Structures are given as C-alpha cells and as structure tokens.
From TrEMBL:
Swiss-Prot/TrEMBL keywords: Transferase
Record GO terms (molecular function): acyltransferase activity, transferring groups other than amino-acyl groups
Superkingdom in the source lineage: Bacteria
Keyword Ion transport assigned: no
Coiled coil: none
Extent of Acidic residues compositional bias: 91-113
Keyword Phosphoprotein on entry: no
InterPro entries, A to Z: Acyl_CoA_acyltransferase, DUF3579, GNAT_dom
Region (Disordered): 90-121
Residue ranges of every copy of the N-acetyltransferase domain listed in the record: 119-260
Protein name: Acetyltransferase (GNAT) family protein
Amino acid sequence: MLNQEIIIHGTTSNGKVFRPSDWADRLCGILSSFNKEEQTYQEWVHPVVIDDIRCIKISPELEERNTAMFRFLMDFAADNDLRMMNYPQQEEAEETTDSVDNSAEEADEEETENAGGLREIMPNETASAFAALSVLRPTLNDINRFVTQVNTIQRAQGYRLLGVFEAGKTGAVAVCGFREVTDLLSGRHFRIDDLVVIPQYRQRGYAVQLLSEVRRIAQENGISQIHVDSHVGAERTIAHRVYFRFGFAIQSYHFVCNID
C-alpha cells in the first residue's frame, strides 16, 4: 500500500491544462457510485487547487479500503494523460518527472501508428466506455447504473458499442453506440445513438474510423442505411462536418414533446 497521499494533477504530460475547468469536482461526483456501506469517497478523495491548477488528492488508504474506486481513479489519470505525484512533495516530483514525461512523449510519437485499436466493447467490459460517454452525456454520473442499464436493457434492444483504445489505456478514448432498427419508413437500418471522442484525443480520425466500422458491419448484415440524430448549435459544427464528409444528408426534423 502507498504511504503518501497521491495527487492527480490537472495538467497533462505535455503541460496542457486539463478541461473542463471543473473536472475535479465532476469526477468526485461520479465517485459517489463507488460508496459502500457507510463509507463515502469524501473520506479519501478531495478536490484541491495547487498553483491555480485544479487537482485531486487521494488518501493512501483508498487502495485497500475501496480498490475499485482506486483503480478507477488511476485509470482515469492514465487514460487522460494526467500527471501523478506525491503530496506534499509535488514540486520535487515535477522536477524528477520531466525526463520521464519527455521519454513518454517520444514513445507516443513512435507508437502512434500502432497504438491500441478499434474493437467491439463486449458486455464484460461495458465500463470501459463510461469515461467517453460521460463527456457526451453529462448526466451520466454513476458507473454501476450505466453498466446495468446498457447490459440489461439497451443490449437487449440490439444496442452495441464500438471503442477505440490507445496503447496502455483501459478506457476507450472514442466510442460509438448503435443498434439495428426496423420501421415502416426505412425498413432495416442502423441508428447511431452515441458518437464521441474524448477531447484530448480528437483530430486523430477516430470518429471516421468508428463510422467506417459501423458501415462495414451494416454491409455485412445487408443493411443499406445508417441514421444519426445530432443536436443543432455552434458547438456541434465539427460533428456535422464529419457527418457530411462521411456521406450523411439531412432528411428530416426531429421533434420532441416533453410530457409533464
């Protein structure tokens, strides 16, 4: 067991500040799903500010007290390339990690072409899609509820998940959720419900890789159409551009009626 408090620092190995600005508070909110008995995450995990950078401080006891929560935090840090250091010796740690970070960057450059890969996310690894999908769906804040809903309800309705995994990361950095639908208008077709790339991993072609894989699966199954809904607004401009370039066309409005 570790004997020093751990800091997940809000900067990446190349010095970029992690976004969104409230990431530490949001992550701590997600940790409530790991609470057990009368013990809560507040006993071991605290958002802190170090040199105007939002960070998370983790008690060394967490690894034994709640292993699942500890592993989730370690995976989150690794998947998002966040710096790790001991507390309160973070300044010393920053000096000693400079050479490590530089070598890691060089390794990343060498491994770019062979890093990770695209594969279907099976039921036993549904949790690996949580981090990415929680970016797309901010209301997702309970990993256990997420896994239960996907595996027991949505998969029964034909929902499938594809993920892009980079080397050394247990969580998917890009995810596509889709399902087969049959209706009177379009017959059999695929409907994409979720498509997201974690911000730090965008502009690497992952969205197009996922769309291409959905198209390949559709062709194998004799399905001739893929449908997707996308919200309007300036923040969705890049997503719309990806869809247009891939061959999607706008064919209808999507109406929603909220029932009180």
